[in-house]
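protien #1 (seq + structre)
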Amino acid sequence: MSTQQQEPETQEPETQEAPEDPEMKGAESPQQRRLDEKQERMVDERSESEAEAEGETVHIKVFRYDPEVEGKQEPRFDDFYVPFEKGMTVLDAVMYARDEFDSSLTFRHSCRQAVCGSDAFFVNGRQQLGCKTQISELEQPVRIEPLPHQEVVKDLVVDMDHFYDQMHAVEPYFQQEDLPEGELEEQRQSRENRENVKMSTRCIWCGACMSSCNVAAGDNQYLGPAAINKAYRFAMDEREDEEIKEHRLRLLEQEHGVWRCQTQFSCTEVCPKDIPLTEHIQELKREAVKKNLKFW
């Protein structure tokens, strides 16, 4: 039996790996991760909006007529299917149809803020401003036509010359002969009088009221609600001379003036600026009667 003692085997020390730095993982900084997450959100939102646009469209039927092009001289309606977006107006839909489907589609528009009055259409049987009318509030298909009772030039564009002639016939500008003595003195107006004529100043010359008036449709010489409202704005202004006011009333008392109004309220109903046109016409009738009263 050997008495030699065996030496214990030596074990190599285990090597421990250094802890991994979380900021170095994938060689991506926190700032880069935030940028990547933001980009992913933007892509998701864009994809979602595109999916919604692809899934929902608006059916519009637009009146077409072009007397200068053979084959388009017969009035018709063209159908367009426009991708719907929240807040879309009739004008937005027509502009999309022009820009994406048919560049020959013709209509007037300018400010897109219900101020210029150039985009008045006949939408689903009612005179309305295209830029103010929400597509979501209309029944489909949305039928878009030019203003009735006016000559159509092309597509949705009508001839406005007669309307402007009637507006200018009532002399729609301020007239005052007795100016203040001081060079810098103002022509003052009371708050009460300003409130009385305030609504009449909101007219944007869109022609919607004239188009809705059955009397104007049958009497081409009738001044119409827009022109009479413009005359009201100046006739009821206390700063004008009495002689000028009587002159205005004489213009309105003619055969085709205020007395032709049949108080149908159609002009008031379609006015995009909520002007009480019928009320103004009736007030001018009362003023005309009072001016003609004689007391002995």
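ok now protien #2
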Amino acid sequence: MQKIIHRIKHLALRVSLYPDVLCLLGLGSMAETNRLDDYSDMDFFLIVKDDTKEAFIRDLSWLEVVPLTFQFQNTKDGYKVLFEDGIFAEFAVFTETEMLTAHFTKGRIYYQKEGFDLSIVEPRYAPKTKTVDPEFNVCEALTNIYIGLKRHCRGEISSATTFIQSYAYPLIIELMQFVYPEHSILEDPYVYERRIETRFPDANFLLNSMRQGALKNQASAKAMLDFLKEYFHPNPHLVAQCESML
């Protein structure tokens, strides 16, 4: 944990030597350092002067405070990289102008050039909390389970797994807020599933039972159906169709 903090501070010192670098902004657990652990990645934005971005995208020498053993440009703005000592980083390079329309959450400044306008790193488009419609989630999850079970019976195991354990599952976990006591945690505004085990500890058995793998699609579907029947009012005719395939 301390190694990753040392790494981003070391990087801050290095980029401060580049006249076109304006700011190094830590994101995710690099901003909320109280939740850093040995499995955290180093997420950050490098903010540079307008018209200098491509130089920092093409040449990553500014990043190599420790040699890189893997680098992959996964977007036009940034990379995923692995340092020689095992630290993994995801980053994007943005200009001052681009930051005005970028979507990000509150960050932590590790370096700022003298005179840099701090208002640029204030989030303008923070994601809004999603309002869950229980009726929609129940019906959509139920139809996904139904389609998945039909494909399972046809022998299309891979597609069945997707419908049951990938499509229906996230809809059902969004319903947990209406059923289980909720522990106050720092939620990920982009990924509802993050830290759900801590958010709803009473649901851990259900979480495990709903994703039992491709060879247990029927058992996974049964766990979902049992949950929906116990706490909500799924259509009984569609439920009966599903249960006939278990």
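Residues 134-154 form the longest helix (21 residues).
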